[in-house]
Design goal:
Helix content is 75%, strand content 0%. With 225 residues, it is mainly alpha-helical. The chain starts with a helix and ends in a 5-residue tail after the last helix.
Length: 225
């Protein structure tokens, strides 16, 4: 019986030994693995929930830069505060819907991301993977998101409310206010998605529990410097 059990134990333990070896000192980081790991990591971030990311305060800061924000007192004096509240709440819903609908756009950009030195990005730490995507595809992503945001704005009939709110503000600021609502909000949606990717990248680099695939475990479980 012992002669039978011993070979069986060896056979059963071999996959475990092989798996551990793949994560151990014998593994050498390659450009291919580094690039694939960055794509996986960014994809996890892009798929994170954006619920609650588009608060009234965040939207107001995005729509009305600091030099313009003082003019909002006039809007309040005109009795438009309820309109502003309703507008920002609805716009937040439209932005969240746009972010969810834009996920395939981000996943496609991540899948098609071209690397010249993926190992350097692994070694760089921080949010270097997200920064690389933002630099390589940020502008094109914002342009791709704009029509999705525009459709959401039209669906919720927000243009008339936007014009009503911005008319007195624009007159007080010498028409320095950017009135292109779809473009402004596409930028906000894009930046929100990038922040989600940054959060996930920090988690993957620091927390072993965030490395949900074998590849992420192999690439991010060691210091390659």
């Amino acid at each position: 019986m012992k002669k039978i059990i011993l070979p069986l134990l060896i056979l059963i333990s071999m996959p475990l030994v092989w798996s551990c070896a793949g994560l151990g000192k014998g593994y050498m980081l390659t450009e291919g693995d580094a690039a694939a790991a960055i794509r996986q990591m960014l994809g996890l971030g892009a798929r994170q929930s954006v619920s609650g990311s588009f608060s009234k305060e965040a939207i107001m800061t995005t729509l009305f830069p600091e030099p313009v924000r003082k003019a909002l007192n006039t809007v309040q004096q005109l009795g438009l505060t309820p309109e502003v509240d309703r507008f920002t709440n609805t716009l937040g819903t439209a932005a969240e819907k746009t972010a969810t609908a834009s996920m395939p756009v981000f996943m496609n950009a991540i899948d098609n991301l071209k690397f010249t030195d993926a190992i350097r990005l692994i070694k760089a730490g921080g949010t270097s993977g997200t920064d690389y995507l933002r630099s390589a595809a940020g502008d094109s992503l914002r342009r791709a998101i704009r029509p999705i945001m525009l459709a959401a704005i039209d669906e919720y009939k927000l243009n008339d409310e936007w014009n009503k709110i911005t008319k007195p503000v624009s007159s007080l600021t010498g028409n320095r206010l950017n009135l292109d609502l779809p473009t402004i909000m596409a930028g906000m949606v894009s930046e929100t998605m990038f922040r989600k990717m940054e959060e996930k990248e920090r988690e993957v680099r620091i927390q072993a529990s965030a490395r949900s695939t074998v590849l992420l475990q192999k690439v991010f479980s060691r210091n390659w410097n």
